[in-house]
């Protein structure tokens, strides 16, 4: 299937001033992002950064015994591979596509060259990085202090913010791996939300029926993260 997605479906690319956009678009390569694809592994050099358009990528921290937990999600608001322009070149986390879709990638050298111009792209990427760090910190606090159904609400809302529409294709096993909990716990939390009329879950499809109710049941962590993204990246509200 030909890739026809507009690169400016990614909010960071859409926010670039015209001169930077014209320079960067020649470096962008369309890519399919199928479910489960690993974009980079822990400790390995990164060759590209990725700009999802209608896919969601999960950043996971993997323990020595193979257990993992999600530390952040990236979708059409952002970029996967911040270590490339932050100077690290690699990261202890793993990036895995959790919701299939399309996106664009840029070679590491091209991104670094553009970043080192110290222009609008650099400032935009640094503001995005600050927002991403907030999401990581709030996720750690949420996983420690809030109930599983509150965590699930936060996770659903963050994922929806990075997609178009009100439906996610996601198995309970995958959600459990993302949240670092047992599958049975996710099943119980999802059934509770379904009985409240907030979601409908069937065969790996989660439909949000009452977003306002989901936001009300979520802990304050979702609001903290969203407020910081909106403060640092106001162009998100206009797309």
UniProtKB/TrEMBL annotation:
HTH crp-type domain segment(s): 146-212
**Gene Ontology cellular-component terms listed:** cytosol
Asked whether the keyword tRNA-binding is assigned, the reply is: no
Which Gene3D superfamilies does the record cross-reference, listed alphabetically?
Answer: Jelly Rolls
User: Pfam families annotated for this entry?
Assistant: cNMP_binding (PF00027), HTH_Crp_2 (PF13545)
**Keyword Transcription found:** yes
Q: Which UniProt keywords apply?
A: DNA-binding, Transcription, Transcription regulation
User: InterPro entries this protein is in?
Assistant: cNMP-bd_dom, cNMP-bd_dom_sf, Env_Response_Regulators, HTH_CRP, RmlC-like_jellyroll, WH_DNA-bd_sf
Query: Could you list the residue ranges forming a coiled coil in this record?
Result: none
GO MF assignments: DNA binding; DNA-binding transcription factor activity
Q: Which residues cross the membrane?
A: none
What name goes with this protein?
Crp/Fnr family transcriptional regulator
**Gene source species:** Kinneretia aquatilis
The organism's lineage is:
Bacteria, Pseudomonadati, Pseudomonadota, Betaproteobacteria, Burkholderiales
């Amino acid at each position: 299937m030909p890739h026809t997605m507009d690169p400016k479906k990614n909010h960071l690319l859409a926010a670039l001033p015209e001169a930077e956009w014209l320079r960067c678009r020649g470096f962008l390569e369309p890519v399919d992002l199928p479910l489960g694809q690993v974009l980079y592994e822990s400790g390995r050099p990164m060759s590209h950064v990725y700009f999802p358009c209608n896919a969601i990528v999960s950043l996971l921290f993997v323990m020595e015994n193979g257990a993992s937990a999600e530390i952040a999600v990236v979708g059409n608001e952002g970029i996967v591979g911040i270590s490339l322009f932050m100077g690290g070149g690699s990261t202890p986390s793993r990036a895995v596509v959790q919701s299939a879709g399309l996106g664009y990638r840029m070679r590491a050298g091209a991104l670094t060259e553009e970043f080192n111009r110290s222009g609008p792209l650099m400032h935009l990427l640094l503001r995005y990085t600050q927002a991403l760090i907030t999401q990581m910190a709030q996720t750690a606090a949420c996983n420690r202090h809030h109930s599983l159904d509150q965590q699930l609400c936060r996770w659903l809302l963050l994922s929806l913010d990075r997609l178009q529409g009100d439906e996610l294709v996601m198995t309970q096993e995958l959600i459990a791996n993302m949240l670092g909990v047992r599958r049975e716990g996710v099943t119980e939390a999802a059934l509770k939300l379904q009985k409240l009329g907030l979601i409908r879950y069937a065969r790996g499809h989660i439909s949000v029926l009452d977003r306002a109710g989901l936001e009300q049941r979520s802990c304050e962590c979702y609001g903290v993260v969203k407020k910081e993204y909106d403060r640092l990246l106001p162009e998100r509200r206009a797309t």
